[in-house]
Amino acid sequence: MHRLNYHHLYYFWRVAVLGNLTQAAHELHVSQSALSAQIKQLEHAANTTLFDRVGRRLVLTDAGRRVLAYAEDIFATGEELESFLRQGGHAEIQRVSIGVLTHLSRNFVDSFLGPLLQRSDVQFSLKTQGMTELLQGLSSHEFDLVLTNRAVTTEGQGQAWHTQLVDRQPVAIVGPAEKTIRQPFPTGYADHEWILPSRHTEIRSAFDALCATHQFTPKVKAEVDDMAMMRLIVRDSGAIAVLPPVVVKDEINQGLLAEYQRLSNTFEHFYAIRLPRKFSAAVIAELLKAMPVHRD
Questions:
Q1: What's the domain count of the chain?
Q2: Is the pLDDT of residue 83 over 70?
Q3: Residues 227 and 239 in one domain
Q4: Are 84 and 107 members of one domain?
Q5: Which helix (H) or strand (E) element contains residue 124?
Q6: Is the residue at 296 inside a domain?
Q7: What is the mean predicted confidence (pLDDT) over 42-55?
Q8: What is the C-alpha to C-alpha distance for residues 281 and 285, in angstroms, rounded to an integer?
């Protein structure tokens, strides 16, 4: 491959970000034909196709998405440099891209982001995706950090993931306040319907083990993999749920729901996942160092 033409890369970046050749040409003050020619030259130099032409639309290929991730880093860094020079070399805005697992506890995410919101020298972007997409985003440098409730091992992955436990929340049996059950599980629970997490979760596995120990078969009304949705269902259905009480802390404070009992040694764990990078925002290391290992 010939030496990378950053002028061509910049044109590719604007088209990819805007998603429209006409709009990008207008922004860049060039004709559509000239812009298209510049992108074709980049594809020729890279010996790869960056866009698929679908009718009048340009759709990024897999290679195009990876190139876009690098371009985002390159030109974001360039913007930081311009800002640094404009301010006399004294100030620098740290930009952080964070991926969040879909359905992750919003209370945890809010808590994690709290320190970033207090800093005037930090800008961050937040995107929710599935686990596969998040790890791909880390690999392609789309994300600096990923937040999840699933640990990731390096075995068979081909990547040296850095997985750090940053928090955990206790899990409890929660239900309508007016039907609070005082007896230890499973006494008093036989006639109640249950809202449970999906079977692939750590919380569900722990609850299933508890049921097996007591030879108890719950009447499962629904299985839900979204804590925000579980919160609404348990609030409105009159059923009992197994979840971290923090998810329904507002309803508990209002007297609508009550914590019946906690599940011994059962937690929802939260992890921060990174890949080793030559350059990364210092705020990431500072943030992870300041996070509590767990909260009970």
A1: 3
A2: no
A3: yes
A4: no
A5: strand 122-129
A6: no
A7: 87
A8: 8
Give the domain range for residue 52: 1-92
Is the full-model pTM beyond 0.70?
A: no
Q: Render pLDDT for 146-196 as a digit per residue (tens, 0 to 9).
A: 999 888 865 444 457 889 999 889 999 999 999 999 999 999 999 999 999
Handedness of CA 75, 79, 85, 88 (dihedral sign): negative
Taken in order 285, 286, 289, 291, the sign of the CA dihedral is negative
Mean pLDDT computed over 41-45:
89
Amino acid at 242: V
Report how far apart, in Å, the C-alpha atoms of 238 and of each of 173, 258, 267 are: 13, 12, 24
Residue 89 pLDDT class (50, 70, 90 cuts): low
Query: What b/e string do you get for 115-140 counting C-beta neighbours within 10 Å, with b at 16 or more?
Result: ebeeeeebebeeeebebebbbbbbbb
Phi, psi angles (nearest 5°) of residue 171 = -115, 145
Instruction: Note whether residue 115 is domain-resident.
Output: yes
Return all residues near 244 (Cβ < 8 A) that are at least 6 apart: 105, 169, 170, 171, 172, 203, 227, 268
Residues 32 and 80 grouped into a single domain: yes
- 35 with 105, same domain: the answer is no
